[in-house]
Amino acid sequence: MLGIKVNKKVTRLGCMAFLFICIAWSTLRHTYSNPMVSTEIQNLEQEAQRGSHLDGSTSTTQANGEKQSHLEKCSKYFHKLYRKNPEWNYEDIKYFFNDDTVDDKLLAEMMETARVYFDCYFGTEKDDYFKNAFPDLESRIFPFLHPNFTTGLTAFTPTVTKYSFQPDEQDLESSILVEELPFKEASGTLSLLSSSEYSRGDGVVLTMGQNHLDILPRFLNVLSYLQTNTPVQIVLKDLELEFPEPEKRARLLEILHKYNVEKGLKVEILDCSKLLNPEFIQSKIINVLNKWIAMIFNSFENFLLLDIDVVIFEKPEFFFQLPDFESEKTSMIVFKDRHLVEERTFSYCIDMFKKLLPKHFDRVSLKKENPELNYIFEKFFDDRMLHSVDSGLVLVKKLKALPQLLTAMQLNVAGKPIRCVYGDKEFTWLSYLFLGDTTPESIKVVPFYGGIAGRASEPQKSGQETLIEVCGTQLAHVNPFTNKLLWVNGGLKTCKMGREAAEKDFSEHYDYFNEKFGQPDAKNSKKKTLTLKQLENIYDNPLRIDTVVIPDTTSPLKKWYQSGECSEYFYCAVSNTTSSVGLDDEVNLGEGFYVSLTENQDQLQHVNEISLQWNRGASDD
User: Is the pTM value of this prediction over 0.70?
Assistant: First the structure.
């Protein structure tokens, strides 16, 4: 469970648990008793920071006076690693040893080795040399890959299975086209993922399971309404594992066939099971880890990652044309989460994460060169603040960001880090820090915090101020250039939790909800009554939006607070009526303002039509 640290005073372990820890500790000592690692990698990291590359342009003088190229140093390091322990790998990062010394040392060495791998090997002109010298290097560093992914065995050809739909075929079975996309004729290499040989064009990427079948038509209906030409890929770790019930699998294909043939979308499925370690597929690659599989193994050069309950109010093409993303050096754009000042991680977690930073990490340069990234860095490392970014929408250039994506995936499968943060959120930007890539051109953090979208309350006097309030379950984000509502996370029902929340609220807090939503009794006008069906209908209604509030969390009256509705998933935000911001107004603050959509009827109508289209997707299918 997030943020829970097991007591280190293990006094009542059963025999089985004690035996497991002893075996794991023995394995760890055998695998990682390598005193060479830190010193060798420190030298390589220092050289990398001085601007060395694999072309050998930077070199050092050996004891015999001869020059040693960067390539030779890299090769020497990895040869020593194999010679020290021929069976070395980082598979044990999946365990949580509940010992900071053990866990932190293992993670720090893994991260250092990954940094050297990316500097020496990944995506460079020396790829063929390293592939021949160390054919299984990648699967040793990244244990979630199939063990044969980079062995050079001609019997193993890593492929992705693609399910596409021919739009001119009305019959479902005739329409489905199943293809195997080979990564290489003989052996696989992660470098190919970052090449135009596999990753091409722009696209929307998402992942899902069979419990998301009810929301998929809503998601696709909005894209159809926006008339996008951008292709969509649903990337899965394993189609049959994610859709174990044959009828649900058939239903998925039916939905996609309809939106390909009748609605003009191009939606495909990618099954990545042949690329992944079978042991990890079932036990470790679960929940949010599927998002990282989708980001790594989709076949686009540039992609817009969307959670399936995210709703965008602009075409996907709009996001790829954002000025910051069109910058040649930008590899990722992320949006800030809501500013929840009370929720923090633990000190022992921050201590661990500090050990994963490069040895010569430069906070001064970070603050000067990338102030928005530095802001969330300080909030996290100094104040232990959780919820830095909202990973519901991430804009990525995969050819540039793949090292960070692989690093984030590695941290998500590790036993200790995932106990400290929400991995789909924080590892998105932490991976840049851990790889030492903090230039302003690399990762862009949108300066505005996330807000809340909904209908504003009537203005209320509070002392010298007049306040409005908006409550809802959706996290809203505005365009930093125009202040228009850009996207929301959480769907567009009044209560995103739906009927389950209505049943819970009705049974546990009937008096509260009857007072708030109950209708006058036909026989006694002074008495209110509320049925479960009425509450379900209220929760299922399309969300009506006229205001977006990004509260000022420095004010006790205006910071976020939770309300009782929707099983307490309702968040409320308050703003002063003098803090209104018009469309296209320049805003220099990350929070403490609101945008009224009523000032622009076209925007108001567009947003609420999208809400209707999203909700119509369920019944229209």
Answer: yes
